[in-house]
What does this fold into?
Amino acid sequence: MISQTSEYALRAVVCLAQNPDKPHTTAEIAKWTKVPEHYLSKVLLALAKHEVVISKKGLHGGYVLAHDPEDLPLLNVINAVDPIKHIKSCPLKLKTHGTHLCRLHKQVNDSIDMIEELFRTSTVALILNEPTQSIPLCESVTTQRGAN
Amino acid sequence: MISQTSEYALRAVVCLAQNPDKPHTTAEIAKWTKVPEHYLSKVLLALAKHEVVISKKGLHGGYVLAHDPEDLPLLNVINAVDPIKHIKSCPLKLKTHGTHLCRLHKQVNDSIDMIEELFRTSTVALILNEPTQSIPLCESVTTQRGAN
DNA sequence: TAAATAAAAGATAAACATATCCTTTTATCT
DNA sequence: AGATAAAAGGATATGTTTATCTTTTATTTA
It folds into this structure.
């Protein structure tokens, strides 16, 4: 439903939100999130281009979040790497439909709208707070990874 | 959000629902739905295997719907060709998470649940009825294709 | 200024989804 | 029975996503 790339991007962003103390390198994030390192590098590049994260080159460089978790909807993360595309005109290119979708494509597009709305209204902060039994990305249930 | 294959399957099923008089061949359906004919052939095969449609070989054969449009949720069509997969256990394979999803993956899975629910409750009949300006798959707004 | 560090960029490969083509099987009609 | 129609199945091709590896560029520190 959402692409592997989006999943990776979400993991990376949550990871950075959990460890806001300093920039983290691609290698670090890759290890923590279990995302293939060189692939993650491309993902982070896209996130930086869309100003979801900020990159810093050189020694002690790495990536940090560009916004507070409260101000960062998951949708922004997803759209940075794999933009949600709405159906705006008839996929069959029927001339009489044009921009007015038939029931079928309206229904499909409604589902896209729903997903978008859900991700627009859920911020990264929402993921961090409300701790359940499982801490995102962390193996242990009692300690944050940053504590190691 | 939904695959090209699912879109094709939905088109084919709606097409058959619009023309319930007799079996229709792959070639006919392909022409009406603007789906590549040989690819559609595989799609219809999957739909038949999942008993969404019924195939009839030989002269005057083709495909018909296996159920009344009222009894056919769009979800069944989608699941026949490209099953919606839920997140059931931690994608990072974190042992302590196991089957108890963290907030991140719960959120993503919730979106999958939402989509599934929407498609479960929308039947093919819903697509046919409530005519808007555009008739599904039909270029003309005044005549059903079957009338040609 | 030199060395070390880390992101950026580019090139290549593997896996998967989509699409096409060709042959075989099955049913129907005369 | 023979001819025809149509689905079923198999093999191959194209395109896109995902993944890996290497080189280049920018930054920091000593």
